Amino acid sequence: MRPIQKSKKLDDVCYDIRGPVLEKARQMEEEGHKIIKLNIGNLATFGFDAPDEIVQDMIRNMSNASGYTDSKGMFAPRKAIMQYSQEKKIAGVTIDDIYLGNGASELIVMSMNALLNSGDEVLVPSPDYPLWTAAVSLSGGRPVHYVCDEQADWFPDINDIKSKINANTRAIVVINPNNPTGALYPVELLQQIVELARQHQLIIFADEIYDKVLYDGAKHTSMASLADDVLFITFNGLSKNYRACGYRAGWMIVSGEKRHAKDYIEGLNMLASMRLCANAPGQYAIQTALGGYQSIDDLVGPGGRLLRQRDLAHKLLTEIPGVTCVKPKSALYMFPRLDPKMYPIADDQDFAYQLLAEESVLIVQGTGFNCPTTDHFRVVFLPNSDDLTVAIGRIAHFLEGYRRRVGIAA
C-alpha cells in the first residue's frame, strides 16, 4: 500500500519538550529505570498542588459543567479576568474582549490561525517557547527569530528586531516573564518594543503566563498597559501561577487599538465558535483563583520553596567547570550555557540523549527552543532540593566524563 504521509505543514514544526528524547525516557522507565525529569514545568509531578479552594470550587460546580458554555467562556470567570486586567492597568477591556481556552496554548494557535496568510511573518524570540514558532508555521506564516542577548541578561536585542521588520511582518511575540531563560524585561525595554510596533503597525502578542512567578522582589509590567494605540493580545492562565496545568484554563485578552482590527476579531470569534467552548470545569476555577489568596507569593518569597530551589540549582550548575547561567528573575527554568571549548557539542539532541542514557536525567536541548547554537540546555528547578542535588550531581558527573572523552582537563 502507498505510505500515508503527515501534512507538509508539519515540516517546520518541532516540539522537543515532548520529543524523541522523551520517548527514550519512557522506554527506560518501562525497563525499570527511575528518571529524574528536568524537562517540563508540570508542577503537580513535583508536589506543587493547586490551592484547595480552587479544587473545592470545581468539585462543587461539577454538576453544572455538563453543557456547552458561551463560545468565549462563562460570564463570571471572564468578569474576574476583566477585573484582573484592570489591576494590571490594561485599559478599555470589556467582557467581549476576553476569550477562555483550553489553556493558553489553544488560544495561541487560534490567534495565529485567525491572522496569518501564506508569506506573512511574525517576529518570535530566540530562544523561545517552541509552541509559538510551531503555531506560526502551522498557520501558514513564517517565524522570524529575533535575538535575545545572553550577555544582556537575555533581553531582546532592539536593533536586531528593527533589522528584521519588513513589509511582510504582521506581529511580534514577547514572552515576559520568559520561558526558557527566566528573564524579566524592564519597562524601558518593553516601551521600545511598543514603539516599534507603533511605527510599523504590528500586533503585539504578549505571553505573560508566569506573571506572578517572580523572585527577589521583582515586579511585572503587562505590555498592554503601556499603550492604547497598538493592538495587544495578552495570554495568561492558571497552569503556572496556580499550579493547575491539567485544568487547561487559560485566557486571551484583546486590548488597545481594536477599531482597525474588527475583521481579525471576527476571525477570532469564528474560531472560538468552531471549537464550541473551552472545558467548563476548568472555567469554574478561574474566578476563585484570581480572587483568592495568592499562595504563589509564599513559594517565590523569602524562604519559599521555589526561591530556595532556584538558588540551589543555580549554585550547583555554575559550580560545574565550563557551565555559566544567567540567574532567572522569574518562571521555573534555567538556560545554562556550556563553554564550547570544553564541550564541543555538534548535536545537542544527541547530547541530551546520552545524558539520559548514562545518568537517567532528562533535560531539553537548547535547539529545542530555537536557540541557534548547540551550547545550551534547559532545566526546570521544580524537583525538591534533594532530588535537584542528585540530578545536577549526575549532570556534573556526565560532563566530567565528556571532558575526559574530548581530552579537556577540568
TrEMBL record:
Name of the top EC class for this enzyme: transferase
EC number of the protein: 2.6.1.2
InterPro entries associated with the record: Ala_Aminotransferase, Aminotransferase_I/II_large, PyrdxlP-dep_Trfase, PyrdxlP-dep_Trfase_major, PyrdxlP-dep_Trfase_small
Gene3D superfamilies according to UniProt: Aspartate Aminotransferase, domain 1 (3.90.1150.10), Type I PLP-dependent aspartate aminotransferase-like (Major domain) (3.40.640.10)
GO molecular function: L-alanine:2-oxoglutarate aminotransferase activity; pyridoxal phosphate binding
Keywords: Aminotransferase, Pyridoxal phosphate, Transferase
Name of protein: Glutamate-pyruvate aminotransferase AlaA
Protein's organism: Oxalicibacterium faecigallinarum
